[in-house]
Amino acid sequence: MSFCPHLLRSRFSAGLSSSVPQHRLQLRHWYRQPAKLPAARYAANYTSISNSIHPGAYDTFGNDLDTFSQPISDPALIREPTDNQTEDQPKGLSDVALSPLTRGNGNDTAGSSSIPDLDDLPGSHISSSGDRNPINRKLFKISYAIPILKNGEIKHKYTTRHVSQETFDFNESVKLASLSYDRDEIQTWKMAYAKLYQAVFLGANMRKFPASLTLNDADQKLLEMIKADCQGSFREAWEALEKPAKASHWKRLSLWLLRNSPDLALEFLLVTSQSADLPFFAMVASCFLFLDKLHHVGKFQHWEKSGHTYVSLLLTCLDPGIWPVAHLSQKGARLYLQNASRKDLYRAWAIVDNRRNHISSATWLCFMRRFTEFGDVRTSLEALELVRRRERVSLRMNSEGVMRHCCKLLLLDSVRDTPNGRNFHILPKLLKMGVIPNRDMMNIVLSNAFKTGDPQLGFDMFDFMKRQSLEPDSFTYLTLLSDAVARGDRERVESLIHNIRTLELDKNPWIASKIFHAHFTFNAKHRDPDADPRGVFYSLLDMYIQLYDITPLRELSIIPPEYTPPSGGANAQPSIIALYLMIATYLRCQKRISHTLRVYTTFRALLAQGHPSITPLASTDHTYNEFLLAFRDDPCGLRPAVRLVEDMQRSSNKDKELENGAVAHAKPSVRTWTILMSAFTFNQQPLAAEKVRGMMAKHGVEYNQVTWNIVINNYANAQNVTQVANSIKAMEAQGFSMDSYTMKCLSYLQDPGRLWIAVEEMDQASDAQHDMVTSSWDEDENEHLLEQGLRRLCKKEESTR
Fold first, then answer.
1. What angle separates helix 490-502 from helix 474-487, to the nearest 10 degrees?
2. 94 and 113 in contact (C-beta within 8 Å)?
3. SS3 for 45?
4. Torsions phi, psi for 653 (to 5 deg)
5. Which of 395, 417, 619, 664 would staple 361 via disulfide (CB 3.0–4.6 Å)?
6. Which residues 6+ apart lie within 8 Å of 70 measured at CB?
7. How many CA atoms does the CB half-sphere of 569 hold within 13 Å?
8. Report field, pTM of the whole predicted structure over 0.70
């Protein structure tokens, strides 16, 4: 995939790599690292020195069986890296500069890349010098075995990691605090757990547990305590047990509780995880993976016990403070991260930085996703950098999981000014990490390009996609169509619709809805004054029938009885947008207040009945505002307009008492109040418009630019120059400035000169008040200084005496 030089005219410098790059940065070795590294810089802090197959030094759950630890003292183990290791990065958009977003002077060259450096990313901070005396630095080995399947038999891949004294000591403390099991016992527990999981969630036949996992008399006594008072009597009895007894009871009780009483299993896990002798983290994580399945089907949605909810209990039992160093259950770690709050997430990030826990690429991606959800772009990129460093042993940068997470991150991208012009903030960093954009990523880049306000940039990106054989899909055309509709480019819309129908993408519900919206925008919203209103309505109705079921429109009574729909109509339930557009078109194409009142009465009745298609329309103010606009056009519609706003307030207040699942009705928005105020203003009812302002103040509604213009219009029509001047000053104080509509309102004044005199008088009064306050402050300050001087003088006189 080669880069086309014609893209240089796009006024953009982001750069897309044109072929799969070689690995960018070689992994640095542990002896080159500083003693203390940021969270995203330690991916290569451990060295694997053996790939041999070992019969078993570590079980699947991380049980320490043949683990040994010792300091490194042999300098032969230290390998010097080659300083001349460089990367041959193929030229693409990341190397060939595109011109800035702003109109350039045509002097941009292909050799001046404006991509920001990745100095703030982890890899760029790792120097080749590292520690001053790496050989004398005392490191320790943690040895363990990773289970693998070879020739149909589970064996273990023997691995050694080198860690610091602090990490080694923590690893030893975890081993000493853990309940000890025989390897065969753990394997038996694991197999029983797998059978239980398959039986509950996959519908497999549940076989009896082995005799060793069947409750005995001692287990029964503990179980009765769990049922009676888990946080009290059971906790006391559990703490009184010896460590081997706890291990024996835990493996049997955990399985029984998961199978028969998940609610009690939560309390049991809480008590045992807070004990001095901890069950293996991987086994606790397995239990929570089982319980989390039940949580997602609503089992623990409202569970609460001893101040704990399900989520808070999960975070307590899977706390990263007890995560093992060498063999961490990655699924358990990800389960914690998925439920963690922002504070808990950053705490886990700091802990794995300090202790150097073994983290897989999938878990780093989980960190990345959560940081993206919290809008932390910088730390998300650091987590992705750690995935890149593990590329040779785990996920590759072009894998589906990495690309999906990059797409989510790109949704946060924005354009910033750089020394070389305007540029995206996130995209260049992803490219330098070796991420090769696929069509999904390019679709988001395309959408971001249009959001910059420069449509030509979006067109250039679209042309680039086609040249790189990235065929447009429904998302691509949806982006192009949305931009064309927003800009009012009717010719472009018609061209895109032709291409969409040629590719048979018009059946996509999102594309169909956008085409429907485009037809409404150009024919109903901005209707030609000479166009027949009935023809406009029926043209949109014909398009609607091809996509959706006509029944909800009949129930709303906006379909004439004599209308016969064309054959071959669709039976799909209409979307909220489609229903809103049809109601808006009907109200805009007919001007009889009686029809508007009839349809609104029917609309409110269907809402009260909970109609499945109509009720969701009440979740926003859009449909209500369309009725208000229709009522505004007739003096007889003022009373229904007031009742409509009262209906919105009454419905939204009732929603506070509704159960979960009910559609929340929208409160009157600032647009709703503004339309109501304009209805009285346009119908020469200034006092009623003032009452609306009072209601807005009572409900704490903030004015927008349109609201201020309506207020100024109301006073200008009443020739109240003083209030016009006051409104202009208040509008400017709120951060708005006069626009063309404001100037049009001022033209209604019979004596415009009086307005500017009033404004000047207000400015002079404001300046005088400011001077008075300043003068008063100066006088007070002078009196204060004078008083201090007199006190000092008195002290001097006393000292001389």
1. 160
2. yes
3. coil
4. -70, -35
5. 395
6. 140, 141
7. 16
8. no
**Chain centroid, CA 333 distance in Å:** 21
| 54, two tokens | 């070992």
CA distance linking residue 246 with residue 196, whole number of Å: 22
- Residue 231 CA to residue 270 CA, distance in Å, equals 9
H or E segment at 148? strand 140-150
Helix H or strand E encompassing 376: none
Q: Output the pLDDT for position 676.
A: 92
In this structure, how many other beta carbons lie within 10 angstroms of the beta carbon of residue 412? 15
| Cβ 27 vs Cβ 43: under 8 Å | yes
User: Residue 539, exposed/middle/buried by CB under 10 A (0-12, 13-18, 19+)?
Assistant: middle
How far, in Å, CA of 577 to CA of 510, rounded?
11
Angle between helices 576-589 and 622-632 (to 10 degrees): 0
Q: Is the dihedral of CA 60, 62, 68, 69 positive or negative?
A: positive
pLDDT digits (tens, 9 = 90+) for 23-47: 333 322 322 333 333 333 333 333 3
Residues 32 and 133 sit within 8 Å (Cβ to Cβ): no
CB 705 within 8 A of CB 730: no
User: What angle separates helix 638-654 from helix 622-632, to the nearest 10 degrees?
Assistant: 160
DSSP track, 621-690: SHHHHHHHHHHHTSGGGHHHHHHHHHHHHHHHHHGGGPPTTSPPPPPP-HHHHHHHHHHHHHTT-HHHHH
Q: Which amino acid is at 573?
A: Q
CA angle (273, 200, 329) in 5-degree steps: 40
- When the pLDDT of each residue in the chain is averaged and rounded to a whole number, the result is 76
Minimal CA–CA distance to 440: which of 478, 403, 399?
403
- Whose structure tokens read 């004015």? 703
Two structure tokens written together for 725: 């001047």
Q: How far is the C-alpha of 670 from the C-alpha of 756, rounded, in Å?
A: 29
The CA-based diameter of the chain, rounded to the nearest angstrom, is 116
* DSSP classification of residue 163: E
SS3 418: strand
Tell me which residue has tokens 């694997």: 48
Report d(CA 470, CA 439) in Å as an integer. 6
* Helix 361-373, helix 330-339: angle, nearest 10: 0
- Position 759 scores a pLDDT of 67
Which amino acid is residue 150, in one-letter code? K
Closest CA to 310 of 347, 344, 263: 263
Alpha helices in 421-454 (DSSP H): 427-432, 439-451
Query: Which phi and psi (to 5°) does residue 746 adopt?
Result: -65, -20
Q: What is the DSSP letter of 278?
A: B
Q: Give the separation between CA 524 and CA 516, rounded to whole angstroms.
A: 11
What is d(CA 432, CA 119) in angstroms, rounded to the nearest whole number? 11
Nearest to 308 by CA among 343, 278, 266: 266
User: Which residue in the block uniquely carries the two structure tokens 């002078």?
Assistant: 782
Strands 153-163 and 53-54: antiparallel
Which residues in the chain come in under a pLDDT of 50? 1-137, 657-661, 767-779, 781-783, 785-786, 790, 793, 796-797, 800
CB 707 within 8 A of CB 740: no
CA 477 to mean position of chain CA atoms: 24
- Residue partners of 667: CB distance under 8 A and separation at least 6: 621, 648, 649, 652
- Rounded (to 5) percent helix, strand, coil in the chain: 60, 5, 35
**Closest C-alpha to 552, from 576, 587, 585, 520:** 576
3-state secondary structure 50-79: CCCEECCCECCCCCECCCCCCECCCHHHCC
Residues 6+ apart with CB under 8 A from 73: none
Environment class of residue 58 by beta-carbon count within 10 Å: exposed (0-12), middle (13-18) or buried (19+)?
buried
Phi/psi for 671 (5° steps) reads: -65, -40
